[in-house]
Specification:
mainly beta, three-stranded antiparallel beta sheet
């Protein structure tokens, strides 16, 4: 099925990450898959990309979906999906990953923070 970009309307939505599969430690120079699990709210939500921001040894990660504006969208329950990205270890020390998990009652971002040490 091919979508006609001129007639397809969609919004972009960041979805909370439920859990993460990440190694306990990294080796310098290696590449590791990191898999996140998230809930798909409707059949109109489609994975777009990862939001990925670097600041020193800190990495902030979130799942970005396209949400297509259609009249026949169906809300989904218990529809867990996974998405994976490859992470290349380029420095010593440790990395701190901040996986976005939504907002709290004060509209502040909530993160699952995981520190992964780098071994040689």
């Amino acid at each position: 099925m091919q979508l006609d970009d001129d007639n397809t309307n969609f919004n972009i939505e960041i979805l909370p990450i439920e859990s993460v599969d990440i190694p306990d430690e990294f080796t310098l120079g290696e590449v590791y898959p990191i898999t996140v699990t998230y809930e798909r709210p409707s059949n109109c939500h489609v994975f777009r990309e990862f939001y990925y921001a670097k600041h020193n040894n800190e990495r902030t990660v979130a799942v970005v979906n396209n949400v297509f504006e259609q009249n026949d969208c169906v809300d989904l329950t218990d529809t867990t999906l996974t998405a994976t990205f490859d992470f290349q270890v380029t420095s010593n020390g440790s990395y701190i990953f901040k996986f976005w998990q939504g907002k709290d009652e004060n509209d502040e971002d909530i993160y699952l923070e995981i520190e992964v040490p780098v071994t040689n």
